[in-house]
Amino acid sequence: MRSFRRAAAERPIPSPNIWHWPEVYERENEAQDADGALWAALRELAPWAGADVLDVGCGDGFHLPRFAAEAASVTGVEPYAPLVERARHRVGDTAAVLRAGAADLPLPDASVDLVHARTAYFFGPGCEPGLAEARRVLRPGGRIAIVDLDATVGPYGGWMRADIPHYDPVAVERFFEREGFALRRVATRWVFPDRETCESVLRIEFSPRVAARAVAETTGPALGVGYRLHVQRVGALSAP
């Protein structure tokens, strides 16, 4: 089973946005959560000061320095080799970046306090192997914090549902509820430096048809985007 999982990790599910347009995706990351609402909710429900943090699906490491500023240690895990190299270049010796998938984490049992994943791998049913691994590497009382986009909130959520009609956001919420996660909805703003950057981001996030609709329905260089923060405290008897 271990060898099968390692083979699977070498063939990660493509993430066309950051894989093909990493520089545009960097501009997207810079624009997200302009008011810090998501980070504030994360700090409240899954604090990382003085903790050993694991960021699963860390991409090119954009969020690692934010954790490293306060955490005892930070490790990023990413299955796509070019992103691993970009992440290592970004963080230097302030964090470790390992090439691996969420279902086969290269960490010992009970070795971290927080497992964080943001819009990566944990999209609902089917992610049970990754949840099992997250729970394995957590110390008692540690937390899993999963950040995903809230497709029930417009305008961004409406474009998501148009682009992925089979995606059922309510079913995903029920899945995480059954798995023992608490849910916090977080309203955020994405604020871009100019209209051109905003449009370039929308075009890497959606199919051409839906991207054209999103561009037409967006006025100015900002838009509202809803998130869901799913948090579970491992070993806790109640939600955080």
TrEMBL record:
Example GO biological process: methylation
Species of the source: Pseudonocardia humida
Alphabetized UniProt keyword annotations: Methyltransferase, Transferase
InterPro entries per the UniProt record, alphabetical: Methyltransf_11, Methyltransf_Superfamily, SAM-dependent_MTases_sf
Organism superkingdom: Bacteria
Domain Methyltransferase type residue range list: 54-146
Pfam families named among the record's database cross-references: Methyltransf_11
Protein name: Class I SAM-dependent methyltransferase
Gene3D superfamilies assigned to the protein according to its UniProt record, in alphabetical order: Vaccinia Virus protein VP39
Molecular function GO terms recorded: methyltransferase activity
Cross-referenced PANTHER family: METHYLTRANSFERASE, N6-ADENOSINE-METHYLTRANSFERASE TMT1A
Signal peptide start-end: none
